[in-house]
Structure formats: structure tokens, C-alpha cells
Amino acid sequence: MSRTNTRSTLILALCLCCSFVLGACAGLPTAPIPTLIPTQYLPTAIAQTLQAANPSQSVSATQLEVLPPTAAQTAQASPTPQASAAPTTTPTAVASALPTNPPPAENTQPAIPEAIIQIRNLGELSKVASPIPIDALLKPGEGGKVQIDLLGEDRRVLARLIKDLPYTDRQGRARLITKLDFEIAAVAEAGRLVFSVFDKFERTTAVNSVPLILLSIGESDIVPPASLQETIVIQQPPARTLIQGGNLLAYGLSRPVSDSYLVAQLIAEDGQVVGKRVAKSAPPEDGGYGTFVIEVPYSVSEPTPALLVVWQGEGSLSNVIHLSSVEVLLSP
């Protein structure tokens, strides 16, 4: 074989080999270009990945600082303008870490507690004939006692009943169901049914009442109560607070009635009134609860346990229709 034929044969074999290699490379699959996770989700995704790889090590997403992708990385991951748009789906691991519900809005309205003495079956200006049916839920005073008074128009006592309620529930409340007899000379008369409880020093700790129309003849026409919430709420001072300096600042909420006023008193264990102040409750715009702020000056020569009572009166200064109280410690 001549030298020319040999060279031609070698060239032909080389061309066949190149064609075979190029064809094999063309059949290899190309790796897809990964889609970048948005920067704000990267800390959570990294933390979850590390936690899955090593469950014994706790990694918080807030401990990770991730830099945004460079322009070259963004261009490589998004070769066309259409592909550079924000991804339409979020990775499953990231979506599970995002909150699904917004946090509940904070309730700024003050809570009104249930009344210590709840008159459950008689609303204001119910027309009642004798005997008056009574259904109440209350926290009894010392010895489990409660006092019920029926007052006439001139505040004379038409009837009085003292009941022992030795059995209470876990909240210290007892149910009172009874009847109260009365007699009046007129056909009808305005009256008020008053419930009172006392502590071991015979100080009044709570009062609730309801105005009624008393009938000497006819049948009762009872109106259900509009509310079972406390009428006077002492927000400050808290119970058993030490007060110093000769002045006590009390404030809270009250539901005033027409021509009513508020009286704050500090009563020692021996019954002596060591501080007193009369004030008005700011009338509410919606007919609900108003606010009161009362500064009560007091005089004591040594640390003295006392009962702060805030009561609502109507007419004379001795006509107590609602009362709330809290124990404090007074110091000079």
C-alpha cells in the first residue's frame, strides 16, 4: 500500500471516531437549572434542612444571615425575562413555616366582673305584690349571712330578713331562693329591695339593690334584670396594698343612675372612719359605665388595716344603693 493511501485511510478513521463521540455526547441529558428560593425564605429553608440532617442540633432561622444572590447567579438561574419573574409556588418546607392566621386583635375594653350580689329575677321597676319572690346568687358575709331590706318611699324599713347560707360553691357563692312579705297602706308605693353582706368587723363589704313598685292589691308584673355585672368596679388600689403619705388615690368604673353620687370611705377594723371623700362619676356617653377618680385623705398614727368602700348613693348621704370594697393597709 502506498503512503498516500495509508494517509487517506487514517483520516477517514479519525473522522468516523469524532462523529461517534459527538453523537454520544448529544444523547446525554442536560441538568435543569435550579430555581432560586426567594431571599426572605432562605433562613427558614436552611434551618429546616440542617434540623433534618442533624435532629439533635436545634437551629433557629433567626440565627442565619443569608446574602441576596449576585447578578450573575440571577442571570444564570433566569436565562430569559419571563423566567426571571417571581415563582408562582412556594417550596413546601417554607410554606409550612409561615403563619396561616393573623394574631388576634388585643381587646382594650376593661372587663366588668359579675356582681358579688346578683339579683337574678327582679329587674328595675318591677311591679310586685306581697310576697316578693327572691332569687339571688351571692357571696355571703361573715358566718354565711346576708341581710335583705325592703325600704319604702321615705326609707322606712317595711321588711327585713337575715338568712344563713352555710353552703357555697368553689367560687364562694351561694344560691338564695325565698319570699319576703310586706304591707303598705297605699294602693302602690315606690320601694327598693336592698341586699347587704358584712365582714367579721361588721363593716359592710357589698351592697346591691333594685328599685321596685310595691302593690297592695293586684298581681305582680316582673321585669327581668338588664345586667348581672358589678355596678362599681374598684380598679385601683389592688387588695392588700400598702398606702403611705396620708392620701389614697382610688379610681375605677361605675354605672351611675340619675341624681346619684359616689362616696369613698376608709374604715378601720374598730369601725372608725379614718378618711372620706364625696365625688361624682363621669357620665358615660353610651349610657354604660363611667369613670371615677377619688383622692381620699386619711389620718393614722401607725400602720392600720382598713377597708376602702366606694358606694353609690341617691338622695341623702345615708342612702346606699350599691357598694364595693377592697382591703388596704394604711401607713402614716
Number of helices: 4
Shape: globular
Distance between the termini: 132 Å
Question: Going across the major beta sheet, what is the strand order?
Answer: 2-8-7-4-5
Mean pLDDT figure? 78
For the secondary structure, the number of strands is 16
Low-confidence stretches: 24-31, 56-107
Helix content: 10-25%
Structural class: mainly beta
Strand content: 35-45%
The Rg value, from CA coordinates, equals 41 Å
Q: Major sheet, described briefly?
A: 5 strands, mixed
One letter per element, helices H and strands E, the order comes to HHHHEEEEEEEEEEEEEEEE
Give a verbal description of the structure.
With 332 residues, the chain is mainly β. Helix content is 14%, strand content 36%. The protein is built from four helices and 16 strands. The protein has helices at 3-26, 42-53, 71-77, 92-95; strands at 117-119, 126-129, 132-138, 145-151, 157-164, 174-180, 188-198, 204-215, 232-236, 241-243, 247-254, 260-268, 273-279, 290-297, 304-314, 320-330. It has a five-stranded mixed beta sheet, with no helix packed on it. Strands 10-16-15-12-13 form a five-stranded mixed beta sheet, with no helix packed on it. The radius of gyration is 41 Å and the shape is globular. The model is unreliable at 24-31 and 56-107 (pLDDT under 50).
